Give the backbone structure.
Amino acid sequence: MTGGSGTRLVLASGSRVRADMLRAAGLDITVDPADVDEPKIEADCRRDGMATPDVALALAAAKAALVASRHPGALVIGADQMLDVDGASLRKPEDLAAAARTLERLAGRDHTLVSAVVLAQDGDVIWRHHAVARLTMRSLDAAAIADYLARAGDGVLTSVGAYQLEGLGAQLFERIEGDYYTILGLPLLALLGELRRRGAAPAGLLG
């Protein structure tokens, strides 16, 4: 599958939301999720004193480079999202009980979402970018959290904060500062700009 100039575009992520965003923006992509050891990569990055944005970029780069080695010549999009609350990073909950604990921790507080995206080709990372959004979740008691999870279901397990802002999760927030696409997990506008610069956007949208 190709971009505007015959360049094949591959998304190194199994995220349906990311794939839907890219396709809605007119990109013709192949999806080939990367299987990397995210906890180990993050632990190594933290051991080296890296801040959350740099960790997210390192994870995105690892995914993109791995998948690029399987698709010679293609532009591979790698992405990662991390949630930072009071200096601690949270990742996707493993089950609904963990999701409830995540929401208990975030309720009534501010947190940031860091979304990173990179492009790799033939195993080398050739471009990287990250964006940050700040969110304030309203106060929630145990009953409200239980009701939300019962309504939202297992879909919350695909989100680092146990919420999906494009759906019922919007009810959880008082204030949001930042780009909507960043919150969904991909700094889309910056990525599209870079793809246009490289002539890899759909024909007619290269201006």
